[in-house]
Amino acid sequence: MAAVSDTGFDPWDPAFLADPYPALAELRAAGRVHRFEPTNQWLVPHHADVSALLRDRCLGRTYQHRFTHEEFGRSAPPAEHEPFHTLNDHGMLDLEPPDHTRIRRLVSKAFTPRTVERLKPYVRALAGELVSALADAGGGDLLKDVAEPLPVAVIAEMLGIPESDRAPLRPWSADICGMYELNPSEETAARAVRASVEFSAYLRELIAARRKEPGDDLVSGLIEAHDEGDRLTEQEMISTCVLLLNAGHEATVNATVNGWYALFRNPAQLRLLRADHSLVPTAVEELMRYDTPLQLFERWVLDDVEIAGTTIPRGAEIALLFGSANHDEAVFDRPSALDLTRRDNPHISFSAGIHYCIGAPLARIELAASMRALLEKAPTLRLAAEPARKPNFVIRGLEGLAVEVG
Predict the structure, then answer these.
(1) In 3D, which of 43, 48, 49 has the Cα closest to residue 27?
(2) Residue 402: its H or E element
(3) Full-prediction pTM beyond 0.85?
(4) Rounded to an integer, what distance in angstroms lies between the CA atom of residue 335 and that of residue 328?
(5) Residue 315 belongs to a domain with what CATH number?
(6) pLDDT tens-place values along the chain, 406 residues long
(7) Peptide bond preceding 98 in cis form (omega within 30 of 0)
(8) Looking at 128-174, which runs of residues are DSSP E strands?
(9) Total of domains in the chain
(10) How distant, in Å, are the alpha carbons of 71, 189, 300 from that of 80?
(11) Do 353 and 77 contact (CB within 8 A), yes or no?
């Protein structure tokens, strides 16, 4: 097993963050599993292994349904981080059966395909308004003017959060998501704790108001959702709402700006898309594969697993490298090429198995709506300045994307 240091994999190196894919290709060539001491994790870079392990019940997003921290050889999180962990650990993304099964079943009663379909006209109208404003201004920051406000407004609309209350949503989400990076600092943790407390308090008030006066929003639906007498607890509702906001817009924001930056750097593909708007559905899938917004997803090893003759012991943590899997030569023809006509595209940007993204249909609607609006209302859209990358590896995005129109 080759040393990771020989491959160029360094999630804190600005050069790696600018373009991690050559180093990830080296990592795949070096083997199927690698020990990475700086984060105390095992890295898994191949599509077949990542896809299989996402479905393997020997791994889990949590271990606390089976073991105490001590039994698992881990230390409990610091007491001062408790508000973040209370919020995070009651969301279905970080739970395993039977709790995950129960909560996902109840959430699915409120978050139905019909609910998502009903949002389509709102999504398309809002995307049109945002892009029209950008075009009328002759350009701006695609991230702040279109990519961010669209999914945040959609999730807020779905949850029934009034427009006057929406300003803190994105900052709260950004601060909470900081804890998902590798080895977050104490300053990052403090921001996440503060955001967790404030967001939870806001949602507790909103849930209380909906209990008194239900509406046709998702919060009211979560309150009403029941199955054989079983209901979501208030904490589960709060954690679900935060998860839907964070997961429901973070990936969409980054997929939008990563995608358009990729298009600007591949002008032949952009010309192809502008000439044929029917390519939008395959373009959305290909752009999510090409520059994956969520690069890494972690799993705890609940029972020993073997990968390519290497035994990963119970208590270890595995880092599943989505971005690497999405560029695996064994699965994708010319993976380093952007091909908006790619039909065979089994990317795993929305995960797989029981934790497959419940909001994937909504994300696809949002990404397609903003792309169509930009193609139709800003046909001369072009890059105005080279963007800066956010100094993150796990959640991959840009600080902004300056564009011009006209």
Answers:
(1) 43
(2) strand 402-404
(3) yes
(4) 7
(5) 1.10.630.10
(6) 557 877 899 999 999 999 999 999 999 999 999 999 999 999 999 999 999 999 999 999 999 999 999 999 999 999 999 999 999 999 999 999 999 999 999 888 888 888 888 899 999 999 999 999 999 999 999 999 999 999 999 999 999 999 999 999 999 999 999 999 999 999 999 999 999 999 999 999 999 999 999 998 999 999 998 776 788 999 999 999 999 888 878 889 999 999 999 999 999 999 999 999 999 999 999 999 999 999 999 999 999 999 999 999 999 999 999 999 999 999 999 999 999 999 999 999 999 999 999 999 999 999 999 999 999 999 999 999 999 999 999 999 999 999 999 8
(7) yes
(8) 139-141
(9) 1
(10) 22, 9, 23
(11) no
- Phi, psi for residue 382 in degrees, rounded to 5: -145, 160
> How is residue 9 written in tokens?
């994999």
Q: In what order do the strands lie in the sheet with 296-301?
A: 34-36, 41-44, 317-321, 296-301, 59-60
Cβ–Cβ < 8 Å for 338, 290 = yes
Q: Which domain holds residue 172?
A: 4-404
Q: Please, what sign has the CA dihedral across residues 200, 201, 206, 207?
A: positive
Q: Amino acid letter at 202? A: Y
CA–CA distance from 102 to each of 80, 90, 94, 112, 124 (Å)?
29, 12, 13, 16, 33
